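Take a look at this chain, C-alpha cells included, and explain the fold to me:
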Amino acid sequence: MELFSRSWTALRTAVAELPDEDFAQPSGCTGWLVRDLVCHLVIDAQDVLITLVTPAEAEPTRDAVTYWDVAEKPPTGDDPLDALIVRLAAAYGEPWLLKFHFDDVGSAAGRAAELADPGLRVGTRDVVLTAGDYLCAYVLEWTLHHLDLVAYLPDAAEPPAEGLARSREMLEKIAGAVFPASFSDRDALLVGTGRRAPTDVEKAELGELAAKLPLVLG
C-alpha cells in the first residue's frame, strides 16, 4: 500500500513538473504523445477509484501478479480505445487543463488508496482480488508508465528505485524466470515488456528467456 502511494506520488509529481512543450513530445507508448499518456493516466486513476468502491463477496480469483494478462502482440496504437485517448487528450487544448484534471482525479485516487482496507475484496475486469493486491499490481502500472513518460524527456524525474525493484520482481514472476543480474531494474522492465529491443549482448545473456519476450501486459 505504501509503495503504491510512493510510486503514484512520484508519477503525479513528474507530470506536474513538466513544461508545456513536453506534452507534445513522444512517450514510450507506441502512437502516443506525452499528453495522450497523461490522459490515459486520468482514466487509470478513475479505474482505481471505481474499483476501490466496488466490493465483492466472492473469493479472490487473482493476486497482484496474476492480475495481469499477457497479450500475444504489442499494441500498435490503432486500437479504438487508444484512438479515443488521443482524441480526448487533444480536446483539453492547453496542457494546464490536462494537468489540473490529472491532479484532481489523481489526488482523489491516492487518498482512496490510503483509506482502503487491504483485505477488502474488490471486483474489476470480471475478476476478484483484495484491495491490497490490486494496489500492489498498480505499482507495476505506475512504474511502467513513469518510464513511458520520461522515455524522451531526459530532464524528467525517473521512477522511485523501490518501485522499479518491486516491478522487476513482479515481471519476473509473470515471466516465470529471472532476468540476468547484469540487467538494471529499469532495463529489465524496458526489455521485458518490449519497450526497447535487447542488444545482441543482452539477448545472449537472456538465454531461453529471450524467446518469451516481450511480455505485453494488459
